[in-house]
Amino acid sequence: MPNKKIAVGQPIEARCTKCRANTEHVIVTLLEEAPLKVQCGQCERQHKYRPPSVPKKPSVRKKADPRVAERKEWETLRPAMNSDAARDYSMTGAYKVKSLINHPVFGLGLVQRVVGARKVEVLFEEGKKTMRCG
């Protein structure tokens, strides 16, 4: 890319300190072949040359994974759980909050809340599951 020779009076794109935008400017003074002072073409204000700003990429906010919080909760509750006191899970069984159950697939779980008449929410090592009950 060839270097263009710049001179006083030439147009140049710069960031205007008053308009707060990249606008067309005119070079007023130079210092060692670099623009020192420019004049905005919109507001006609003279100021130091500031190169045009690059637009920022919009930040993408990542949602927190609920499984991470559930795993931390599991890790804090696990030491207090007595696996010998856990009942085997049955879809016809009745469960109360803080009951320990032993599921054949998910393993040891703690009933977190009763959801309606026939469902409970259980915290297992791999996360919360809604289970059917009697």
Can you walk me through this structure?
With 134 residues, this protein is mainly β. The protein has 2 domains: 11-48; 66-132, no CATH class. Helix content is 9%, strand content 40%. It contains 1 helix and 9 strands; from the N terminus they run ββββαβββββ. The strands form 2 sheets. Strands 5-6-7-8-9 form a 5-stranded mixed β-sheet.
Short description:
By secondary structure, the chain is mainly beta.
Strand order of the biggest β-sheet? 5-6-7-8-9
* Number of helices in the DSSP assignment: 1
| Helical content band | under 10%
The pLDDT mean sits at 89
Query: What is the total tally of β strands?
Result: 9
Q: State the domain count.
A: 2
Rounded Rg: 34 Å
Give start-end ranges of low-pLDDT stretches.
Answer: none
Class inferred from helices and paired strands: mainly beta
**How much of the sequence is in beta strands?**
35-45%
Quaternary structure annotation: single chain
Terminus-to-terminus distance: 77 Å
Instruction: Summarize the biggest pleated sheet.
Output: 5 strands, mixed
Shape: rod-shaped
SSE pattern, N- to C-terminal: EEEEHEEEEE
Helices and strands, with pairings:
Elements: E1 11-16, E2 21-31, E3 34-40, E4 46-48, H1 66-77, E5 87-88, E6 100-103, E7 107-114, E8 119-124, E9 127-132
Parallel strand pairs: 5-6
Antiparallel strand pairs: 1-2, 2-3, 3-4, 6-7, 7-8, 8-9
Features:
134 residues; mainly beta; 2 domains; 9 strands; 9% helix; 40% strand
